[in-house]
Design a protein that fits this description.
The complex is a heterodimer of chains A (226) and B (444). Chain A is mainly α and 226 residues long. Chain A has 13 helices and no strands. In chain A, α12 runs antiparallel to α13. The longest helix of chain A is centred in the first third of the chain and has 33 residues. With 444 residues, chain B is an alpha+beta fold. Chain B has 14 helices and 21 strands. In chain B, β18 and β19 form a beta hairpin. Classes of the chains: A mainly alpha (226), B alpha+beta (444). Chains A and B meet through α1, α5, α6 and α7 of A and α9 and β7 of B.
Chain lengths: 226, 444
């Protein structure tokens, strides 16, 4: 192993991993929801929003009442909602302030505050670009401010795993999936070794066989929780 | 407030400051009706301003007081000469809940017991400063003026270009120096937090960030063969040299203190006793910041340092002494009564607010257990301006100064000014709804 920061406990690594996943999930969820809402404008017989909900694996009950988008954006009772996803990202980010720095945590705070203000104004998904912008800024700030390479690497592992999960669910082109794998493989071997030697194999399996995703994800999620 | 005040330009930007506070997650937690809530700590942009002359006296007095308190702690856990010489009654030491027999004979690294001391003061109408209490266990609050200054300088740099205010942004460096001074075996330096549901979690994480040390949760630390380790990945471990703990003594080690504690580190006290880790602040400091022992601090200054105390205590009575008991019983309606076992503004009763029936009940409580109570004259302390919308109102406030002790004792040129938002209240604690201000110390 080339490099290992010993002052990262398993619990800390787990929080960083999930911070990476939740932040990325919020970005991708907003992006895809915008895309499917846009398709919904021209839809006749099929329901793009139903497709979105099915692929994303989120509850579909609100589709019948026509309240799906507001529920998916803002409900704090719906654990799959953007609001819940951001709350989870914030919970992990707060606990890791000393490693990710206040400047980086601030972008998560801004995203949460912006979403809460949007909820108060009943804003639609197309008005939530600033939330996406803050989350993209979060990732930019991670590169700028986070001094520990190990911390950056674990965040990146979480980010890549989330991207892979969502991209596979939504049948992205193999080239795009391969590029995420490439990013993941560029992470220092020290942090990848934390996972175990089969990590990349699992990820490759996910890309090749979407039906294996569930087992692979379960394995990945337990990596840092040991 | 006048338009030509030295902070006038800052006030124009006060909304921007509060937005930055929100952005940076400057919060404190509070338990209300059984549930935990995090809220923004209300910040008032009008600073408390301390003149250079006042500060010169205050800083000398604060350093003197903390040096005497550190000498007292070393003495009561070793030679006990101050008791033998009749300066402090033995009963006051040994009946204090903060006195830990387990600490007898232990001298911490660099002879320092109270590394981070929070001394609460008020300024009376005539400008005299009085010490209200010493906090030598886990005093909190430095992070708030620290981040407030950082943000106010960001939104209104011209204010600080015009005003000659001592920079307070070196607090984390001072803290780091203290940790370095007492570190055992050049080990890892950690801030130990009980977790995010502690009211001061923001402070724990922010100070760890700014001091460049590790923020550790109880499960991250373990003891093996009387050495303390941080639990790393892949079953690796790293030796810990100093723990800046933000957990009370009683919860720090279930093997020595409160057995049901889930927040503590089993056997950490044993490692500390063997000198294998420094604990900041040391175990057992509660005996010196006991509200009853407070009465004796000016005597400690004379006894240990051979100097006249520079700072004054608020006029205090100990009902355990017959003369004081009589005075307290006779004058209860004009006094403030404090339960020595309480903190955070709890257990404080103002005689003037009590009914005749309640006064009688309190007299009975004092009679039944005089050691449990102290009484103080109510100091008519200065009201400070705080912003209320676009105008200002007067509110009660106090001031917590921070004194850091490693190889040297240094007084941080700033501090936490807390104010009550309730016009009728004297209780400024954040846990009871108060807000905070930055404290400016003028350079000239």
């Amino acid at each position: 192993m080339k490099y290992l920061n010993l002052a990262i406990s398993p619990a800390k690594a787990d929080r960083l991993y999930w911070l990476g996943r939740y932040a990325e999930r919020a970005i991708l969820s907003l992006h895809l929801l915008r895309r499917y809402c846009n398709a919904d404008i021209d839809a006749d017989s099929h329901s793009p929003l139903e497709t979105f909900a099915t692929l994303m694996g989120v509850p579909t009950a609100a589709l019948k009442s026509g309240n799906f988008v507001a529920d998916y954006l803002y409900s704090t009772e719906n654990l799959s909602s953007i609001a819940s996803t951001l709350a989870a990202a914030k919970n992990n980010a707060m606990l890791e302030r000393n490693d990710i720095k206040t400047e980086v945590l601030a972008y998560v705070e801004l995203a949460v505050n912006t979403l809460e203000a949007a909820k108060a104004n009943n804003a639609g998904v197309f008005e939530l670009q600033p939330v996406s912008d803050y989350l993209m800024s979060f990732w930019g700030a991670v590169g700028e401010y986070v001094r520990s390479r190990a911390v950056r690497n674990i965040l990146t592992i979480g980010r890549c795993v989330e991207r892979l999960d969502v991209m596979i669910r939504f049948c992205y082109e193999p080239e795009r999936i391969a590029s995420v794998l490439e990013t993941l493989e560029s992470v220092d071997e020290a942090e990848l070794a934390l996972c175990d030697n089969q990590t990349i194999d699992y990820l490759r399996k996910m890309a090749a066989m979407p039906e294996a995703s569930s087992e692979a994800l379960s394995k990945l999620n337990s990596l840092f929780a040991a | 407030m006048t338009d030509d005040s030295i902070y006038a330009k800052l006030l124009l930007q006060r909304d921007a400051v509060n937005k930055w506070m929100e952005r940076c997650g400057v919060r404190f937690g509070i338990y209300k009706n059984g549930s935990f809530k995090e809220q923004i700590f209300p910040f008032d942009a009008i600073p408390r301003v301390i003149s250079a002359a006042d500060w010169q006296t205050l800083s000398r007095g604060l350093a003197q007081r903390v040096m005497a308190l550190n000498a007292f702690l070393k003495d009561v856990y070793t030679k006990r000469s101050i008791i033998r010489d009749g300066i402090v009654p033995a009963d006051f030491v040994f009946s204090s809940k903060g006195y830990l027999p387990q600490c007898e004979g232990i001298i911490p690294p660099a002879d320092v017991f109270s590394h981070i001391s929070g001394i609460d003061l008020v300024q009376a109408d005539d400008g005299t400063w009085f010490v209200l209490e010493d906090n030598l266990r886990v005093p909190s609050g430095a992070s708030y003026p620290l981040i407030a200054r950082d943000l106010t300088r960001k939104v209104s740099p011209e204010t600080f270009a015009d005003a000659s205010v001592l920079d307070n942004r070196d607090y984390a460096s001072l803290l780091r120096r203290v940790l370095d001074d007492v570190n055992v075996s050049s080990g890892l330096e950690v801030v130990l937090t009980p977790g995010r549901y502690n009211s001061a979690f923001f402070e724990h994480s922010y100070l760890a960030e700014k001091a460049g040390v590790v923020l550790a949760f109880p499960d991250d630390i373990f003891v093996e063969d009387d050495l303390v380790y941080y639990k790393g990945l892949l079953n690796k471990k790293e030796r810990v040299g100093v723990i800046y703990r933000r957990i009370s003594d009683e919860f720090m080690d279930p093997m020595t203190f409160e057995k049901s504690s889930l927040l503590g580190i089993p056997n950490v006290f044993s490692a500390y006793r063997k000198g294998n880790v420094a604990i900041v602040n040391a175990f057992g400091n509660g005996v010196a910041d006991d509200k009853g022992i407070y009465y004796f601090v000016p005597k400690m200054v004379k006894y240990y340092l051979g100097e006249e105390p520079i700072l004054r205590n608020a006029p205090t009575y100990l009902p355990i002494f017959p003369d004081d008991y009589k005075y307290v019983i006779d004058n209860l309606p004009t006094l403030v009564i404090k339960d020595v076992a309480e903190a955070g503004g709890y257990g404080v009763m103002f005689g003037r607010d009590m009914s005749a029936e309640r006064l009688d009940q309190v007299r009975a409580m004092i009679k039944a257990d005089p050691r449990r109570w102290i009484a103080q004259e109510v100091i008519n302390f200065i009201d400070l301006d705080i912003m209320d919308g676009d105008s200002t109102v007067k509110r009660k406030s106090d001031f917590r100064a921070f004194v850091l002790s490693g190889k040297n004792t240094e007084v941080w040129p700033s501090g936490l000014t807390r104010f009550t938002r309730d016009p009728k209240s004297f209780v400024v604690n954040s846990s009871q709804g108060g807000g905070f201000k930055d404290t400016w110390v003028l350079a000239k």
